[in-house]
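USER:
Make up one protein:

ASSISTANT:
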Amino acid sequence: MSVSVPDELYQKAVEIAKAQRVSVDEVFASAFAEQLSAWERLQQRTARGTRDKFLAALTKCLTLNPTTTIGLEHT
């Protein structure tokens, strides 16, 4: 199999591979496996949810002021 990746991404993978003493292929395989796992978890959570639950959660987010919620309010 052959995959094209941007040079910057490939160089970062080379750095990680050297630091971890593994092959670049192993770095990409591990990253790909982690991403697939994350997508699967997201799909599972999505299957358990409903549009009403989503809208209720979104409403809660919209009522929060992010600046004061995390303590960044200006004095």
Q: What stands out?
A: Helices lie at 7-20, 24-48, 51-62, 66-69. Residues 7-69 form one domain. The chain has one domain: 7-69.
